[in-house]
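From: lab user (bench 3)
To: helpdesk
Subject: output format question, protein + S-adenosylmethionine

Hello, I'm new to running complex predictions and I'm not sure whether the block I got back is the full result or only part of it. Here's what I submitted:
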Amino acid sequence: KLSKRLESVANYIIEDSAIADIGSDHAYLPCYAVKTGLAKRAVAGEVVEGPFQSAKKQVQNEGLGDRIAVRKGSGLEVIEAGEVDCITIAGMGGPLIASILEDGKDKLTGKERLVLQPNISAIAIREWLLKNGWKLIAEEILEEDGKIYEILVAEKGDPEAPYHHLEKELLFGPFLMNEKSPAFMKKWEGELANWRKILVNLEKASGSEENEEKKQALQKKIHYTEEVIQQ
Ligand code: SAM
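Helpdesk reply: Thanks, we reran it on our side. This is the complete output you should expect:
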Protein backbone atom coordinates (compact mmCIF):
# COMPACT_ATOMS: atom_id res chain seq x y z
CA LYS A 1 0.00 0.00 0.00
CA LEU A 2 1.21 3.44 -0.90
CA SER A 3 2.10 5.87 1.91
CA LYS A 4 -0.38 8.63 2.66
CA ARG A 5 2.30 11.07 1.49
CA LEU A 6 2.72 9.50 -1.96
CA GLU A 7 -1.00 8.89 -2.31
CA SER A 8 -1.55 12.60 -1.71
CA VAL A 9 1.03 13.39 -4.40
CA ALA A 10 -0.75 11.00 -6.78
CA ASN A 11 -4.04 12.84 -6.22
CA TYR A 12 -2.67 15.77 -8.24
CA ILE A 13 -1.61 13.73 -11.25
CA ILE A 14 -3.69 14.62 -14.28
CA GLU A 15 -5.89 11.73 -15.33
CA ASP A 16 -4.82 9.73 -18.34
CA SER A 17 -1.50 11.52 -18.52
CA ALA A 18 2.06 10.52 -19.18
CA ILE A 19 4.12 11.22 -16.10
CA ALA A 20 7.77 11.40 -15.13
CA ASP A 21 8.67 10.67 -11.53
CA ILE A 22 12.12 12.07 -10.86
CA GLY A 23 14.10 10.56 -7.98
CA SER A 24 11.69 7.66 -8.06
CA ASP A 25 13.69 5.27 -5.84
CA HIS A 26 11.53 2.11 -5.64
CA ALA A 27 9.15 3.52 -8.32
CA TYR A 28 6.15 3.10 -6.00
CA LEU A 29 4.53 6.28 -7.26
CA PRO A 30 4.64 5.54 -11.02
CA CYS A 31 3.63 1.91 -10.40
CA TYR A 32 0.62 3.06 -8.40
CA ALA A 33 -0.32 5.74 -10.94
CA VAL A 34 -0.20 3.32 -13.86
CA LYS A 35 -1.90 0.44 -12.02
CA THR A 36 -4.82 2.59 -10.92
CA GLY A 37 -5.22 3.95 -14.45
CA LEU A 38 -4.38 7.47 -13.39
CA ALA A 39 -1.42 7.61 -15.75
CA LYS A 40 -1.30 5.80 -19.05
CA ARG A 41 2.46 5.58 -19.01
CA ALA A 42 5.38 6.73 -16.93
CA VAL A 43 9.08 7.38 -16.79
CA ALA A 44 10.85 6.65 -13.51
CA GLY A 45 14.13 8.57 -13.27
CA GLU A 46 16.91 7.79 -10.81
CA VAL A 47 20.46 9.03 -10.60
CA VAL A 48 21.81 6.55 -8.04
CA GLU A 49 22.51 2.93 -9.03
CA GLY A 50 20.92 1.23 -5.99
CA PRO A 51 17.55 2.99 -6.21
CA PHE A 52 17.67 2.70 -10.02
CA GLN A 53 17.96 -1.10 -9.67
CA SER A 54 15.14 -1.24 -7.12
CA ALA A 55 12.93 0.78 -9.45
CA LYS A 56 13.64 -1.63 -12.30
CA LYS A 57 12.94 -4.62 -10.06
CA GLN A 58 9.67 -3.17 -8.77
CA VAL A 59 8.41 -2.37 -12.28
CA GLN A 60 9.37 -5.86 -13.45
CA ASN A 61 7.74 -7.57 -10.44
CA GLU A 62 4.51 -5.70 -11.05
CA GLY A 63 4.60 -6.57 -14.74
CA LEU A 64 4.47 -2.91 -15.79
CA GLY A 65 7.56 -2.89 -17.98
CA ASP A 66 5.55 -2.09 -21.10
CA ARG A 67 4.17 1.11 -19.59
CA ILE A 68 6.91 2.32 -17.23
CA ALA A 69 10.37 3.14 -18.53
CA VAL A 70 13.01 3.19 -15.80
CA ARG A 71 15.87 5.46 -16.81
CA LYS A 72 19.12 6.32 -15.12
CA GLY A 73 20.15 9.94 -15.07
CA SER A 74 20.07 13.17 -13.14
CA GLY A 75 16.88 15.18 -12.89
CA LEU A 76 15.00 15.96 -16.08
CA GLU A 77 17.76 14.68 -18.37
CA VAL A 78 15.91 11.33 -18.46
CA ILE A 79 13.01 12.84 -20.45
CA GLU A 80 12.62 14.51 -23.81
CA ALA A 81 10.91 17.90 -23.98
CA GLY A 82 7.19 17.31 -24.48
CA GLU A 83 7.35 13.62 -23.58
CA VAL A 84 5.23 13.89 -20.42
CA ASP A 85 2.23 15.92 -19.20
CA CYS A 86 3.04 15.77 -15.53
CA ILE A 87 6.27 15.71 -13.53
CA THR A 88 6.39 14.51 -9.93
CA ILE A 89 9.41 15.10 -7.69
CA ALA A 90 8.89 13.89 -4.13
CA GLY A 91 10.71 13.16 -0.92
CA MET A 92 13.65 15.55 -1.27
CA GLY A 93 14.56 18.92 0.15
CA GLY A 94 13.08 22.02 -1.49
CA PRO A 95 16.46 23.38 -2.65
CA LEU A 96 17.28 20.08 -4.41
CA ILE A 97 13.89 20.03 -6.16
CA ALA A 98 14.40 23.65 -7.23
CA SER A 99 17.87 22.86 -8.60
CA ILE A 100 16.50 19.88 -10.56
CA LEU A 101 13.94 22.21 -12.16
CA GLU A 102 16.56 24.90 -12.81
CA ASP A 103 19.02 22.47 -14.41
CA GLY A 104 16.26 20.86 -16.45
CA LYS A 105 14.61 24.06 -17.70
CA ASP A 106 15.18 23.19 -21.35
CA LYS A 107 13.07 20.05 -20.87
CA LEU A 108 10.02 22.02 -19.71
CA THR A 109 7.68 23.06 -22.52
CA GLY A 110 5.28 24.88 -20.17
CA LYS A 111 2.47 22.44 -20.84
CA GLU A 112 3.34 20.20 -17.92
CA ARG A 113 1.86 20.14 -14.48
CA LEU A 114 4.49 20.01 -11.75
CA VAL A 115 3.65 18.12 -8.55
CA LEU A 116 6.41 18.74 -6.03
CA GLN A 117 6.70 17.34 -2.52
CA PRO A 118 9.53 18.88 -0.52
CA ASN A 119 10.37 17.46 2.91
CA ILE A 120 11.85 20.79 4.00
CA SER A 121 12.24 24.37 2.72
CA ALA A 122 9.28 24.57 0.35
CA ILE A 123 10.17 28.27 0.10
CA ALA A 124 13.02 27.39 -2.30
CA ILE A 125 10.47 25.89 -4.70
CA ARG A 126 8.00 28.78 -4.40
CA GLU A 127 10.85 31.18 -5.20
CA TRP A 128 11.88 29.15 -8.24
CA LEU A 129 8.30 28.97 -9.54
CA LEU A 130 7.85 32.70 -9.07
CA LYS A 131 11.07 33.54 -10.88
CA ASN A 132 10.36 31.19 -13.78
CA GLY A 133 6.76 31.94 -14.66
CA TRP A 134 5.04 28.98 -13.00
CA LYS A 135 1.82 29.59 -11.12
CA LEU A 136 1.15 27.76 -7.89
CA ILE A 137 -2.34 26.27 -8.30
CA ALA A 138 -2.68 24.15 -5.16
CA GLU A 139 -0.89 23.27 -1.97
CA GLU A 140 -1.39 20.60 0.64
CA ILE A 141 0.19 19.88 3.99
CA LEU A 142 -0.08 16.54 5.72
CA GLU A 143 1.28 14.61 8.64
CA GLU A 144 2.36 11.00 8.49
CA ASP A 145 4.24 9.10 11.21
CA GLY A 146 4.96 12.31 13.06
CA LYS A 147 6.50 14.02 10.02
CA ILE A 148 4.97 16.90 8.16
CA TYR A 149 5.09 17.12 4.37
CA GLU A 150 4.06 19.77 1.88
CA ILE A 151 2.86 19.31 -1.68
CA LEU A 152 3.07 22.13 -4.22
CA VAL A 153 1.30 21.95 -7.57
CA ALA A 154 2.14 24.36 -10.38
CA GLU A 155 1.32 25.06 -13.99
CA LYS A 156 2.63 27.69 -16.36
CA GLY A 157 0.80 30.96 -15.73
CA ASP A 158 0.93 34.26 -13.86
CA PRO A 159 3.34 33.40 -11.05
CA GLU A 160 2.29 36.34 -8.88
CA ALA A 161 -1.43 35.58 -8.98
CA PRO A 162 -1.65 33.52 -5.77
CA TYR A 163 0.27 36.06 -3.66
CA HIS A 164 -0.90 39.06 -1.66
CA HIS A 165 1.93 39.45 0.83
CA LEU A 166 4.82 37.99 -1.10
CA GLU A 167 7.53 37.66 1.54
CA LYS A 168 5.24 36.05 4.08
CA GLU A 169 3.43 33.77 1.67
CA LEU A 170 6.64 32.51 0.06
CA LEU A 171 7.55 31.17 3.48
CA PHE A 172 4.20 29.73 4.57
CA GLY A 173 2.54 29.08 1.22
CA PRO A 174 -0.39 31.24 0.10
CA PHE A 175 -2.94 28.40 0.12
CA LEU A 176 -1.65 26.76 3.28
CA MET A 177 -1.53 30.04 5.15
CA ASN A 178 -5.12 30.73 4.26
CA GLU A 179 -6.30 27.29 5.26
CA LYS A 180 -4.31 26.96 8.54
CA SER A 181 -4.87 23.23 8.94
CA PRO A 182 -3.80 21.39 12.12
CA ALA A 183 -0.66 20.08 10.35
CA PHE A 184 0.22 23.63 9.29
CA MET A 185 -0.20 24.94 12.84
CA LYS A 186 1.87 22.09 14.23
CA LYS A 187 4.68 22.64 11.74
CA TRP A 188 5.01 26.36 12.39
CA GLU A 189 4.58 26.09 16.15
CA GLY A 190 7.51 23.67 16.04
CA GLU A 191 9.60 26.00 13.86
CA LEU A 192 8.76 28.92 16.12
CA ALA A 193 9.90 27.11 19.28
CA ASN A 194 13.09 26.11 17.49
CA TRP A 195 13.84 29.62 16.21
CA ARG A 196 13.21 31.12 19.64
CA LYS A 197 15.86 28.80 21.09
CA ILE A 198 18.33 29.72 18.36
CA LEU A 199 17.65 33.39 18.97
CA VAL A 200 18.37 33.06 22.70
CA ASN A 201 21.70 31.47 21.83
CA LEU A 202 22.54 34.15 19.29
CA GLU A 203 21.78 36.78 21.88
CA LYS A 204 24.24 35.13 24.26
CA ALA A 205 26.95 34.97 21.60
CA SER A 206 29.19 37.87 20.52
CA GLY A 207 27.63 40.75 18.64
CA SER A 208 29.54 40.32 15.39
CA GLU A 209 28.06 41.79 12.24
CA GLU A 210 27.27 38.34 10.88
CA ASN A 211 25.48 37.44 14.10
CA GLU A 212 23.48 40.65 13.96
CA GLU A 213 22.27 39.84 10.45
CA LYS A 214 21.31 36.31 11.43
CA LYS A 215 19.46 37.65 14.45
CA GLN A 216 17.50 40.12 12.38
CA ALA A 217 16.53 37.55 9.79
CA LEU A 218 15.42 35.18 12.54
CA GLN A 219 13.47 37.88 14.38
CA LYS A 220 11.62 38.63 11.19
CA LYS A 221 10.66 35.00 10.66
CA ILE A 222 9.62 34.71 14.31
CA HIS A 223 7.49 37.81 13.97
CA TYR A 224 5.81 36.53 10.80
CA THR A 225 5.17 33.14 12.34
CA GLU A 226 3.66 34.64 15.50
CA GLU A 227 1.39 36.73 13.34
CA VAL A 228 0.29 33.81 11.20
CA ILE A 229 -0.41 31.32 13.97
CA GLN A 230 -2.03 33.79 16.33
CA GLN A 231 -4.44 35.27 13.83
N1 SAM B 1 10.44 9.92 -4.71
C1 SAM B 1 10.51 8.84 -3.74
C2 SAM B 1 9.57 9.12 -2.60
O1 SAM B 1 9.10 10.25 -2.48
O2 SAM B 1 9.33 8.22 -1.78
C3 SAM B 1 11.92 8.64 -3.25
C4 SAM B 1 12.48 9.71 -2.39
S1 SAM B 1 14.16 9.42 -1.99
C5 SAM B 1 14.29 10.05 -0.39
C6 SAM B 1 15.01 10.58 -3.02
C7 SAM B 1 15.56 9.91 -4.27
O3 SAM B 1 15.96 10.92 -5.18
C8 SAM B 1 16.77 9.06 -4.01
O4 SAM B 1 16.53 7.76 -4.49
C9 SAM B 1 17.89 9.75 -4.80
O5 SAM B 1 18.79 8.83 -5.37
C10 SAM B 1 17.11 10.50 -5.86
N2 SAM B 1 17.77 11.69 -6.42
C11 SAM B 1 18.44 12.66 -5.78
N3 SAM B 1 18.88 13.58 -6.63
C12 SAM B 1 18.47 13.21 -7.86
C13 SAM B 1 18.62 13.74 -9.18
N4 SAM B 1 19.28 14.87 -9.38
N5 SAM B 1 18.06 13.08 -10.20
C14 SAM B 1 17.38 11.92 -10.01
N6 SAM B 1 17.23 11.36 -8.79
C15 SAM B 1 17.76 11.99 -7.74
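A quick orientation on your result: The longest strand covers residues 134-144. Let us know if anything else is unclear.
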